[in-house]
Amino acid sequence: MASRGAFSNKLGFILAAAGSAVGLGNIWKFPFEVGNGGGAAFVVLYLFFCFLLCFPVMISEIAIGRKTLRNPVGAFNELGFRNWRFVGMLGLFCGVLILSFYNVVAGWAFGYFIEMLFANFDVGSQFGDYIKDITKVGFYAILFMLTTAFIVSKGVSGGIEKAAKILMPTLIIMILGLVAYATTLPNAMKGISFYLVPDFSEINITVIGGALRQAFFSLSLGMGALITYGSYVSKNDNIISSAAYITLMDVGIAFIAGLMIFPFVAFNLGGDMTQVSEPGFGGPGLIFVTLPGVFATLGSTWGVIVGSFFFLLLSFAALTSTVSLLEVPVAYVVDEHKVNRNKAVWIVALIIFVIGIPSLLSGGYSEFLSNFSRIIGVPDVIDSDFLSFVAATADVLLLLGGCLIVFFAGYIWKKKNLHEEIAQGFNGYENSFVKKFLDFAVTILSPVVLAILFILVLLNNFFGITLI
Ligand code: PFF
Description:
By secondary structure, the protein is mainly alpha-helical. It has one domain (about 10-465): Amino acid/polyamine transporter I (Up-down Bundle), CATH 1.20.1740. It is about 75% helix and about 0% strand. The chain is built from 21 helices and no strands. 4-fluoro-L-phenylalanine binds next to helix 1, helix 2, helix 5, helix 10 and helix 14.
């Protein structure tokens, strides 16, 4: 399959898949979801969901991709289940939705890099005006989509892998440095205890749904991104250990991002963590409001260096994710419609950019789009702007997709075939504990629990109905 491209080795795949997983979801979305979900109890649920419920979905996606060497739609065909193509289609739709708004936020992050370069630390307190400035944010969004399309057009091992290899470790080191700094600030401990000391009475279906949606989004699961990436993995690689590394890296980075943000938030709020879920401070603006003020405390030279470098790395982390998001529909168009890769990339990128325009305008520029959920009468998931609405919709679809994929792997494709695929590249799989766990997880644990939670979350998030 040389013409489709392949990862040069196992590390290349892990880094690229982790590059897809690690992005704005970890550093931008995770903290405000935790803030909204009441803190540590959300974190506990999130960890539980990632390691127990999502892990089998991840394995199923990679195995299906490697078995079929196809994009998410073609994969179901290839296995002989044409009727299941809709799951792949759902994934494509989801990927398009996600990239449409993700690109806008990635543009904000890149724009903040420029603001930090010019020592404009006040941009944090003017975040509302910043995202309203359509010329600026529009320009950055265009730039970001162009860069993404350029990398994807270079093919799998050329673009995605190289970027992931250098940038991920740098980002981790930078965050750890900021964690160390964060703990020296006044009120830091109030932030840490909000983040790490759970109050289980906070748990309700909104919090559960938030944590589960976040787990799927953060791990890039439920839309076939890992079916696509799995199709580039060698038969000699161990799918289980690869999935474990990807999950650990993703969860680890989200976790340390939280350790960095919450002391900063507590410092900014003078220790009053009750405001962390309030509009204007919490929600999608959380890191964009909080961090510039913190960088200002480093003084003008260090503030500029650390601040700009941070937002630059965040933009790169976002880029490895936008690349994977674009790769999914592109792989589909190339494989299934035999369109030339280069052409496919630019057309798909243009379409997604256009779909993202309402999200771009929903940061205050358009009254209607900025208050979308309130106006059309659905409950706000986090905020009522169109971007938040699309994000919540896509999240719920990821859940549905994940549930269907794992059900497919366990019951339709049949777990015997799944096991067979996993066993390649894994000596001793036959008698391992992992096999026993997966046996249970793909037939009972993940499909059943995910189906129940999907229904509860759907009713809660979109119809305001709370059953538990
Ligand atoms: N996991 C990415 C993040 O956390 O930023 C977002 C994402 C990328 C979701 C790719 C889904 C996907 F297929």
